[in-house]
Amino acid sequence: MNHAAAPLLEVDNLRVSYPTPKGRVEVVKGLSFTLGRERLGIVGESGSGKSMTGRAILRLIRNPGQMAADKLALEGQDLQGLNDRQMRGIRGARISMIMQDPKFSLNPVMTIGAQIAESLDVHERLSRRDTNARVLDMLGAVRINDPKAVARMYPHQVSGGMGQRVMIAMMLIPRPDLLIADEPTSALDVSVQAQVLDLIDELVRAKGMGLILISHDLNLVARYCDRIMVMNGGQVVESCAAGDLHKASHPYTQGLLAAVPQMKEIRDTLPVLDRQSWSRT
Q1: Please, which residues bridge with residue 194 across strands?
Q2: Which of 104, 233, 97, 82 is nearest to 168 (CA)?
Q3: Are 129 and 137 in contact (CB under 8 A)?
């Protein structure tokens, strides 16, 4: 397929809703954007709809949730027109997603090597020898020093940071075109967070992939992404180049930036978001 013919991902008027006693409530309200082979950050508070956006792209919204879009396409291919079997062929092979606290998504009764191999076997038919070689190569690519030893381990035998790297290996071994990383370092120590994000960034660049990095951390997203979308209440309130985040014009984005603690903090109290100032606009 000609990658120049269409953007990597096209999302137009995406909506996700769930039932409540007072009727259906939209948690994603008419979201639209296009993505090339670039790094897009989606930021916002908990409940802003950013994780639901990632799940909706993979069509992982299940009943009683409902999703709809005027367009949801991967390199021109209509994802909404695919049946469940066809969509399973897209997940992993074309679009992979690292969930929050990914170590807890690992199967506790399977070795790490077997789980990574399984994610490859679903999409490619390789000999056992070739599969094992790909698994060890991928573990090495995520900077695990002794891939053979780690491949024989079970999830409870590895640290949080190593478990995170295993999940990255599992998501990237099918060589997808797009990686969605949903708070991929939220359960890690600060010192390990930077290592994992540097690793994701390095692999995305090396493989020419698209990246959607979902986070509540403005500074982190500004560092690792090319452009940023700020979400609030299921809507995009601001979109800008990562380098222009400090020039944000929307009061919500300005409030988030003002509330970020500084290394040399001199303020007695951090500002509180004045939600009324933009909720009426």
Answers
A1: none
A2: 97
A3: no
Q: In which band, very low, low, confident or very high, does the pLDDT at 274 lie, cut at 50, 70 and 90? A: low
Quote the DSSP letter at residue 47.
T
Report angle CA 266, 271, 274 to the nearest 5 degrees.
Answer: 165
* pTM reported for the whole predicted model: 0.87
Q: Integer distance in angstroms from the first to the last C-alpha of the chain? A: 43
Q: State residue 103's pLDDT score.
A: 65
What are the tokens at 121?
A: 């076997």
Q: How confident is the model at residue 27 (pLDDT cuts 50, 70, 90)?
A: very high
- The CA dihedral of 56, 58, 62, 66, to the nearest 10 degrees, is 30
Q: Give phi and psi for 40, each to the nearest 5.
A: -110, 130
Give phi and psi for 215, each to the nearest 5: -160, 165
* The residue to which tokens 């639209």 are assigned: 32
Q: What is the DSSP letter of 59?
A: T
In the block, residue with structure tokens 């949080």: 160
- Please, what are the domains in the chain? 36-62+83-260 (3.40.50.300)
Beta strand segments in the chain, E: 9-20, 23-35, 39-43, 66-68, 71-74, 77-78, 95-98, 178-182, 210-215, 227-232, 235-241
Give the separation between CA 142 and CA 200, rounded to whole angstroms: 8
112: number of Cβ within 10 Å: 28
In sequence order, what are the residues at sequence separation of 6 or more whose Cβ sits closer than 8 angstroms to the Cβ of residue 232?
44, 45, 48, 252, 278
Structure-block tokens of residue 80: 């909404």
The DSSP 8-state label assigned to residue 91 in this structure reads B
